[in-house]
DNA sequence: CCAAATTTTGACGCGCTCTTAACGCCCGCG
DNA sequence: CGCGGGCGTTAAGAGCGCGTCAAAATTTGG
């Protein structure tokens, strides 16, 4: 859930924005002037700040500057002024986007999505799967078993990747074969036996009696964490 | 030096933009239609794409979509259309900003700075990476090995940069090739071998048995501090 | 316009991975 | 009780990927 701080001195705009944003699933906090905006931003971290430039107490650009002293939160500026000087100043002070009033709500929402998309793109997913005997870090492509790194060949990794991404789910042989080797190899069930044995030898405590890479006879395989 | 790809079918605009941007220290490449734009972007990685929506061959939104299939390069859209539908479509397709013509050049430049700032800001957290045998200062672009400065060629630095920014993470060959040389070179795994050998010769204590630049056969490379 | 540095290209040998085949086991079925 | 299919295991040859070196082509800098 993304949280947004809306800063505007016009109660109508604040209220309208808050309702619209909440309606789209965002968490909204509001502020009516610069000081309380800075205070609110310090109080609780937000994902985006929507900032009107025409505030009663502090100049909008100053708000941006003071916010940027300690925070890298994306700032989307609203303004009634069309002059390009204001835009340049605000953007160079550290704003990320600038919309002039009157603006379309769908445009505002689209620009919000663009900003948020960029911010979550850069965040690395920490997708790690853990079992009783080994750990798979999908982002790093790293497998650890009792403190030791386990090396995988490309084919081994491909199979492991599919398996751990579908825990407790039955993967048919054809599914594995077509995804790893291509549709032309859909009948080479031999390959699976060889590589499944390899995976178990590397990852299972007792390769003879596997606990994580389970064979479903006649159907396929199942990975249970 | 930041490189920009300018895409517009109006020669006057292309020319004016190119001159202005070059005057501000950017490296500029140009394209007149969608296909050549995609081709140009694939040929050599750029830091920003400035894209006009009204292209003769492909719809602008399609260009964005196809670019986003393999690249995360920031896209700044220019358009003569003021309709908010166009804006929403372009932004949701993956554009980062949207300016309607006619626009002020200083506003364009300010928005460019904002985009570029955001792209470098987010990575500024750790400026120096240290290993047992050498130190990399990302901000200064300086490498030190046992008190001695180590010189790197541009390509060598690009690779090193990607590697040290993703410690312990496996970087696939395609990832390196597309980010350093562009997607058109995704199959030239030869280059990687040559340059990885170069990096190891310059940075590893024993280039023959690397401890920091590890090869994951068939998959890619991994940097371990 | 020349010289140096850098990038690109090609060739070679080695080691590892993939592929393939053979064999034994367990289980269900006739 | 004998048979066959599906599965696990192992081993060996073929082929590919990697590191290395060196030379050609291109770019950079003076």
Give the topology.
2 copies of one chain form a homodimer.
Chain A (H helix, E strand, L loop, with lengths): L2 E5 L3 H13 L3 E5 L2 H10 L4 E5 L7 H9 L6 E5 L4 H10 L3 E4 L4 H18 L5 E3 L4 E3 L4 E4 L2 E3 L3 H12 L4 E3 H8 L8 H15 L9 E4 L3 E4 L2
Parallel strand pairs in A: 1-2, 1-3, 3-4, 4-5
Antiparallel strand pairs in A: 6-7, 7-8, 8-9, 10-12, 11-12
Chain B binds a DNA duplex (30 and 30 nucleotides) through helix 6 and helix 8.
Can you walk me through this structure?
The structure is a homodimer of 225-residue chains. The first copy, chain A, is α/β, with parallel strands linked by helices and 225 residues long. Chain A has two domains: 3-124, Response regulator (Rossmann fold, 3-Layer(aba) Sandwich), CATH 3.40.50.2300; 128-223, Arc Repressor Mutant, subunit A, CATH 1.10.10. Chain A has helices spanning 11-23, 34-43, 60-68, 84-93, 105-122, 154-165, 173-180, 189-203, and strands at residues 3-7, 27-31, 48-52, 75-79, 97-100, 128-130, 135-137, 142-145, 148-150, 170-172, 213-216, 220-223. Helix content of chain A is 42%, strand content 21%. Chain A has a five-stranded parallel β-sheet with strand order 2-1-3-4-5, sandwiched between helices. The relative contact order of chain A is 0.09. The A-B interface holds A 72, 74, 84-85, 87-88, 91-92, 94-98, 104, 106-107, 109-111, 113-114, 117-118, 121-122, 139-142, 151, 153-154, 157 and B 72, 84-85, 87-88, 91-92, 94-98, 104, 106-107, 109-111, 113-114, 117-118, 121-122, 168-170, 216-219. Chain B binds a DNA duplex (30 and 30 nucleotides) through helix 6 and helix 8.
